[in-house]
Design brief:
The chain is an all-alpha fold. It contains twelve helices and two strands. It has a two-stranded antiparallel ribbon.
């Protein structure tokens, strides 16, 4: 019996951790939608949602029930299997990067009080689901695959507007993925690792503490590319309501449309986590070790709250930009990506290489 419990205990712990992480992200996504509607209302001189619950706080749940109860219409001439799978591909690829993000520092614990020796050998609780030596490559790879959901949705709908939106998304991904990857190389060279934990640790031990200072050009390039990667204003050309009705999800309704809707906001969250981890020290807060002991529960709580506040700032930036800037034309989008953003990113890599070479001589 004891052997069975010892074998099952890590599985149960990781299952609970995964459930909490994904549930927490989905709740943040739900209230990001509400926050966007509220903030856009203030920007445009409107009230925003305020009917469902106090100050409209239950509006996300009302929207979810609306999507569930709506009639699900499937076009007769669509490729039905691919049509059904596309929203799942988009949402799955949006959620998968969450497993490698460090949401806080490890917590030192003493679990010797647990029965049957279940706590033996457990000295720390990591605030991450899985740690990969190539975490940066994993995130870039998964986010690149996410465009297949949009492309397949546009193709399988058998609608010219949907197809045009899918093609735009594919072209946009190719254009801006290169600049995004190049902007990260400088951070990887300074940290000397592709492990997201090591990148946060390197920022805490660097002279500048956060890599946004020595890699400000890379930060700006990454941020612009992130807006394009998530199909947000001013780079929301795959949807472009004024040109393509609703773009790649024109023929989607009910819960399948809700999956695409969730995928967009989950992508906003995961990209915000990535930019905070790479350039703003992740959960690391300079000087916090002078107040709390590293590894203690108060240190972990304050670090985690600081991490979330940094993420919320970038989510607010997404909303602010949407309420402020107009949409690019598609030729302007492509020209900006290939003729300006990519050369700037490559130039940043060259300069960083020279600086790192002379620093390590």
């Amino acid at each position: 019996m004891e052997d069975v419990l010892k074998t099952a205990f890590p599985f149960v712990v990781y299952s609970v951790a995964i459930l909490l992480a994904f549930q927490g992200v989905l709740m943040i996504v739900a209230y990001t939608v509400l926050g966007e509607r509220k903030i856009l209302g203030w920007i445009q001189g409107r009230v925003g949602p305020n009917r469902v619950g106090p100050w409209g706080v239950l509006q996300p749940f009302a929207d979810l029930f609306k999507f569930i109860l709506k009639e699900d219409i499937v076009p007769d001439k669509s490729t039905k299997v691919v049509y059904m799978m596309a929203p799942l591909v988009a949402l799955t690829c949006a959620l998968l990067p969450i497993v490698v993000y460090p949401f806080g520092p490890p917590i030192d614990v003493d679990l010797s009080f647990l029965p049957y020796g279940l706590g033996e050998g457990i000295k720390q609780i990591p605030l991450t689901i899985a740690r990969l030596d190539v975490g940066v490559l994993y995130v870039l790879g998964i986010t690149s695959v996410g465009v297949y959901g949009i492309a397949l949705a546009g193709w399988s709908s058998n609608n010219k507007y949907s197809l045009m939106g899918g093609l735009r998304s594919s072209a946009q991904m190719i254009s801006y993925e290169l600049a995004m990857g190049a902007s990260i190389i400088g951070v990887v060279m300074l940290a000397g690792s592709l492990d997201l934990h090591e990148i946060i640790w390197a920022q805490g031990h660097s002279t500048f503490k956060w890599f946004i200072i020595p890699q400000f050009v890379g930060f700006v390039v990454f941020l612009i590319a992130a807006f394009a990667e998530t199909n947000r204003v001013p780079f929301d050309l795959p949807e472009a309501e004024t040109e393509l009705v609703a773009g790649f999800h024109t023929e989607y309704s009910a819960l399948k449309f809700a999956l695409f809707f969730m995928a967009e906001y989950v992508n906003m969250f995961t990209v915000s986590v990535m930019v905070v981890t790479l350039f703003l020290g992740g959960w690391y807060i300079p000087g916090l070790t002078h107040i709390f002991d590293y590894g203690s529960i108060p240190y972990a709580i304050v670090s985690h709250v600081g991490f979330l506040l940094k993420i919320f700032f970038f989510l607010f930036l997404y909303i602010w930009v949407r309420g402020t800037l107009p949409r690019f034309r598609f030729d302007q989008l492509m020209s900006f990506g290939w003729k300006f953003l990519l050369p700037v990113a490559i130039g940043n890599v060259i300069v960083t290489t020279i600086v790192v070479y002379f620093m390590n001589r």
